[in-house]
Design goal:
319 residues, alpha/beta, pyruvate-formate lyase- activating enzyme, eight-stranded parallel β-sheet, two-stranded antiparallel ribbon, 9 helices, 16% strand, DUF1848 domain-containing protein, DUF1848
Length: 319
């Protein structure tokens, strides 16, 4: 049995939910290795899937699929990125096409009502410092979001903006007075402690995402693909031993297979490491084929070969 990641390379629930559900109906999905020519085929049958870890900034378009997902017998939990940056879009376009916070919060609450507060994990990620979104802005915004999400989640994952080269290329296009800056580590720790206090007051635990320097009580080291959480949510399921498989330095994730593709998300977040070419991402979104077995169409569908049934051996009986 395997764990599927759906997906940290793109936002499948927001933009490709119909495609994904067609993959569920057909029982398999194919994805391209982003670093090589290999094409991997993975089963989506419930008996082969230990859990599905979803990632999205907007589950609203996916909510009507939840009942069918349940009928398929798939074990799922959900990372929901909610930062409040869209409230500043007129003056600070960090997330060009992500809906406003009220709409996202409504979808968050609906998702938690359908499953439980344990199944939906809030991501306040990444924390970006700019002249507009300084530490005070983050304290104020985090408190507002924590108040609205209290009772709908038990966990919040956070990280600070990483300086990937591809991220720097995107943020470099912002005006000078909106450029992100990297404050001293002590200032980050002070903010992390304050966020932990706010979260705790609303019944939410704060977890790091690849930020070991901020693991100070009550903040815990997080694993986004979390074996312990999977075992807690589905304790009686057939278990396969999961191995640690970090995606980057200080990552605490366990082994999973991500079925997404880079340069396919149209959200337009300037800090995104998964999109280098925004026009290409929009083009791929508009041209994607709901019926195809891979998110990026390269050649015809290739359904997996069904194993041949064993031949029946007939042994005549002596009369």
């Amino acid at each position: 049995m395997h764990v599927l990641s759906v997906s940290y390379r793109t936002d499948i629930p927001a933009f490709y939910g119909d495609w994904f559900m067609q993959r569920v109906r057909e029982g398999y999905v194919r994805y391209h290795n982003p670093y090589g020519p290999q094409v991997v085929t993975v089963s989506l049958r419930a008996e082969d899937v230990r859990a599905i870890v979803f990632w999205s900034k907007h589950y609203g378009p996916f909510l009507h699929h939840l009942d069918e997902l349940d009928r398929a017998g798939l074990a799922c939990y959900f990372h929901y990125s909610l930062t409040g940056y869209t409230a500043e879009r007129a003056t600070h376009p960090l997330e060009e096409r992500v809906p406003q916070p009220d709409q996202l919060i409504e979808a968050f609450q609906a998702l938690a009502r359908h499953y439980s507060q344990k199944h939906v994990l809030w991501r306040y990620d990444p924390i970006i410092f700019t002249p507009l979104t300084d530490a005070e802005w983050h304290r104020r915004t985090f408190r507002m979001l924590a108040q609205r999400l209290a009772g709908y989640t038990e966990r919040c994952y956070f990280s600070f903006l990483d300086g990937y080269n591809k991220v720097a290329r995107n943020t470099g296009k912002l005006p000078d007075n909106l450029q992100p800056y990297d404050p001293p580590q002590d200032e980050k720790l002070d903010l992390a402690r304050e966020l932990a206090s706010i979260a705790e007051a609303h019944g939410i635990g704060l977890y790091t995402c690849a930020e070991d320097f901020a693991v100070i009580p009550p903040i815990q080291r997080g694993a986004c693909v979390d074996k312990e959480l999977i075992d807690e949510l589905w304790p009686h399921a057939q278990q396969r031993k999961l191995k640690l498989s970090p995606n980057r330095n200080k990552c605490g994730c366990y082994d999973s297979r991500d079925i997404g593709a880079y340069d396919t998300c149209p959200h337009g977040c300037v800090y995104c490491y998964a999109v280098i070419n925004r026009p290409l991402a929009l083009k791929r979104y508009k041209e994607h084929d709901v019926e195809h077995d891979a998110l990026i169409k390269r050649g015809p569908k290739q359904p997996p070969q069904e194993p041949h049934p064993p031949q029946q051996l007939i042994i005549p009986l002596d009369e």
